[in-house]
Amino acid sequence: MEYVTLRNGVKMPKLGYGVFQVSNEECERCVLDAISVGYRSIDTAQSYGNEEAVGSAVQKSGVPREELFLTSKIWMSNAGYEKAKASIDKSLQRMKTDYLDLMLIHQPFGDYYGAYRAMEEAYKAGKLRAIGVSNFYPDRLIDLCQFAEVSPMVNQVETHVFQQQKVAHEYMKKYGVQHEAWGPFAEGKKSCFTNPVLVEIGQNYGKTAAQTVLRFLIQSDVVVIPKSTHKERMEQNLDVFDFALSDAEMDAIRALDEGKSLFFDHYDPATVEMLTNMGKTRIV
């Protein structure tokens, strides 16, 4: 496994396993499979409803806790200092651990400043080894970087070959924030797994289009957390460190960028209404 070093010196695997939309019942088995084939970074969230399963899998895996990198995220219903503070302890309890390697603010809505202060406090207390945000576009990320006592170390945003977040990436680099991708396969949208450009480039190395996507993002200094419930796919997704794309191949994939979301545009008022209503009704 290759690692990136966050601003505070913490090492984070460049490739992890995400458990979004994996049921709590299935999640323990999936995480155990992921750890068994070599994953050392597991990404979950309070709103996913499977923190307990992740914690159980980690305990049963036999892998020392210090060898694993565990991430969770504070949901909107836990925004604000007091709620966020309590929710951090609840996440630790659910995941059966004394600390998390990374905690993120899940969405840039509600009193996320209060939630961030709670994360800063937990970070100083050693409960969190690193802190950051998710789905923060450059304007809100810059605001937080400029005024927070402890600047975010990671920003997890929708990133794939069709939405490469080029402008956001440059601002993350400027402020020392590690870019992390959710949805690196665009959840299969736009025929990601059969795209002729990706398929042809992958064939040069005996790799699939999916492996080509992951390699492109990793070479673009983006951390990735692909999800699969199939062990053989988990192994394939991990097998991307034995080849490197050429400059011409990187340029060909960069040309696929459409520069817009395939899921949630956080600048669209209707989307913001939908997400914030979800934050009010999904209580975790």
From TrEMBL:
Gene3D superfamilies per UniProt: NADP-dependent oxidoreductase domain
Protein family according to the UniProt entry: Belongs to the aldo/keto reductase family.
Annotated binding of substrate, by residue: 106
Protein name: Diketogulonate reductase-like aldo/keto reductase
Recorded GO MF terms: oxidoreductase activity, acting on the CH-OH group of donors, NAD or NADP as acceptor
Active-site residues, as the UniProt record annotates them: 48 (proton donor)
Species, as recorded: Catenibacillus scindens
Regions annotated as coiled coil: none
Site positions per UniProt: Lowers pKa of active site Tyr: 73
Domain of life, source organism: Bacteria
Annotated keywords: NADP, Oxidoreductase
CDD domains: AKR_AKR5F1
Domain (NADP-dependent oxidoreductase): residue spans on this chain: 21-257
